[in-house]
Design a protein that fits this description.
Elements lengths: L3 H14 L3 E3 L11 E3 L1 H20 L4 E4 L8 H5 L2 H4 L1 E6 L6 E3 H14 L3 H16 L3 H10 L16 E4 L2 E4 L12 E4 L4 H6 L1 H7 L6 E10 L14 E11 L4 H17 L8 E5 L9 E9 L2 E12 L1 H10 L5 E6 L5 E5 L2 E8 H12 E5 L8 E5 L10 E5 L6 H12 L5 E3 L5 H11 L3 E5 L1 H6 L1 E6 L5 E5 L3 H9 L1
Parallel strand pairs: 3-9, 19-20, 19-21
Antiparallel strand pairs: 1-2, 4-5, 4-6, 7-8, 9-10, 10-16, 11-12, 12-13, 13-16, 14-15, 17-18, 21-22, 22-23
Helix pairs in contact: 2-12, 5-6, 6-7
Bound molecules: adenosine-5'-triphosphate.
Length: 488
């Protein structure tokens, strides 16, 4: 079995070889931290999206979904604080010209210390860094880097610039004319989907006659000019988020924050991943909008890392949109409080759950990817199998005639025609059956059926289960029901 770094590399290669994920514009040597989903990756991603969407909207009567545009009025991002605050402290090496996120540079150094067995010093450096970051003390951060003689991996020198803030938003121009300062036409590619929900809060509340507490969910692209982007689809410059903003009464945020922490963890466990692979990580340094925040981290092959953030965003966003737009963002609550008086007008508070779709794809892939040694005394053998939960697998059923003649393909086609409206099927008649099974294992197809000569006599086929590789004979008429039961 591969060790973890090797496992991460193996997953990347597997994704490319089997049509899950390709580097973007690969014929031009790719574009850093941008990826394309291939034929099976896009199916997997869509299944995850559908599963999230259903569990958020269909399963919660008080949550509805929207699909807002990527471009938004530029003032949105002033109101949200992203123009002023959405930045990371960076430092450049003057010799290599390479730019680093300061926290990543220092964390890398701490990892080196740990690898040398100097855990105590590593922890001390990290604690100092956290203290400087919490105070935005850039001079302190630079001094920490200099005192420890932290070097650039490329130039090998410690010749650093000052620490500066670097905004992570991408911008472009809107329309055909550019003003003299270029600012009037400047629009941003949204760095989070949440603001599309905030600016539509009243539209949805009024037209949907929503009563607090209620939620608005959205899945969509977000863009961040990430500086350190070397971790496959974990950190991309263009990615997708699945977010839900839950609007609540001011003062009830603690209770709803706990509710959504628990609810989201249940969703993660429903993916068939054991609870030991997850942990909560509470934020010490809160984002500019939050009064409480935590991440759900998953134990990736590259270590425990964030997949989802749960944030108590107070009324920060709606209040600021009210101030900048001069439009009321209030809700009238005619329920009665404990004194029998209506709660009246207020700007709702918000609990946000924000999960990265691409990181979820990576989590599902990491969990599914398995190398199995199937050697016997007679011969060496192994397989790579993606043990996806059947409901998320890109292909649910492979339909394989044993040979390309004797009327077997015709029967297989009939089964295909019968099943393809209900779930994704894949027909294949090339290669030996053994090779075809292995290929389906590598794509994570949970069920294969083989049509052989006996099928012509008694209308039965062999169904093979991916994880156990066990096979049994079942009647043709039962195939659809068997698969539907197991993928539901
Ligand atoms: P990180 O600390 O890893 O940069 P973040 O805390 O900035 O992430 P949030 O702003 O909370 O992330 O975004 C919510 C979710 O969006 C994250 O939990 C993650 O799953 C996803 N996400 C954020 N940035 C990226 C990215 N560059 N590539 C892929 N997914 C991302």
């Amino acid at each position: 079995m591969a060790n973890d770094t090797n496992k991460f590399q193996a997953i990347i290669s597997h994704c490319k070889e089997y049509g899950f994920i390709f580097p973007s514009s690969e014929i031009y040597d790719g574009l850093s931290a941008v990826y394309d989903y291939g034929q099976w990756g896009s199916e997997l991603k869509k299944n995850i999206k559908d599963y999230w969407w259903k569990s958020m909207t269909q399963m919660h009567e008080n949550i509805v979904g929207i699909d807002a545009a990527i471009f938004m009025h530029p003032t949105t991002w002033k109101a949200s604080g992203h123009v002023d605050n959405f930045s990371d402290p960076m430092i450049d090496n003057k010799d290599s010209k390479k730019r680093y996120r300061v926290d990543h540079l220092i964390e890398g150094y701490a990892e080196e210390l740990k690898a040398k067995g100097d855990t105590q010093n590593a922890e001390a450096v990290l604690a100092e860094m956290d203290a400087f970051l919490a105070k935005d003390d850039f001079e302190g951060l630079k001094k920490l880097i200099e005192d420890h003689k932290i070097k650039c991996a490329i130039s090998g020198t410690s010749n650093w610039t000052d620490v500066r803030q670097f905004n992570l938003m991408f911008s472009t121009e809107f329309g055909s004319t550019v003003s003299s300062d270029g600012e009037d036409n400047k629009v941003y590619l949204r760095p989070e989907t949440a603001q599309g929900i905030f600016v539509n809060f009243l539209n949805v509340q009024k037209t949907g006659r929503m009563k607090i507490p209620f939620g608005i969910a959205q899945i969509g692209k977000a863009f961040r000019n990430e500086i350190v982007a070397r971790q496959f689809i974990f950190r991309m410059r263009e990615f997708e988020q699945m977010e839900m903003q839950f609007f609540i009464r001011p003062g009830s945020q603690k209770q709803w924050y706990e509710f959504w922490k628990e609810e989201r963890m249940k969703w993660h466990l429903s993916l068939g991943i054991v609870k030991e692979k997850y942990r909560f990580h509470d934020h010490v340094k809160l984002a500019h909008y939050a009064d409480a925040a935590c991440d759900i981290e998953y134990d990736f092959p590259i270590g425990f890392k964030e997949v989802e953030g749960i944030h108590s965003r107070t009324d920060f966003d709606l209040r600021n949109h009210q101030e900048y737009s001069k439009k009321k963002m209030q809700y009238f609550d005619n329920d009665l409080d404990e004194n029998g008086k209506p709660y009246g007008n207020y700007i709702p508070y918000v609990i946000e759950t924000s999960i990265g779709l691409d990181r979820t794809v990576l989590m599902i892939l990491s969990e599914a990817y398995t190398e199995e040694d199937l050697s016997t005394e007679e011969r060496k053998d192994n397989r790579v199998v993606l043990k996806f939960p059947p409901k998320l697998a890109p292909i649910k059923l492979a339909i394989l005639p044993l040979v390309k003649k004797d009327g077997l393909p015709e029967i297989a086609r009939e089964i295909m025609n019968d099943c393809k409206f209900s779930f994704r099927c894949f027909y294949e008649e090339k290669d030996t059956i053994g090779k075809r099974y292995r290929r389906m294992d590598a794509l994570g197809t949970p069920f294969c059926i083989t049509i052989d000569h006996q099928t012509k006599e008694d209308n039965t086929v062999t169904i093979r289960y991916r994880d156990t590789m066990q096979q049994e004979r079942v009647h043709i008429n039962t195939i659809k029901a068997i698969v539907e039961k197991l993928i539901s």
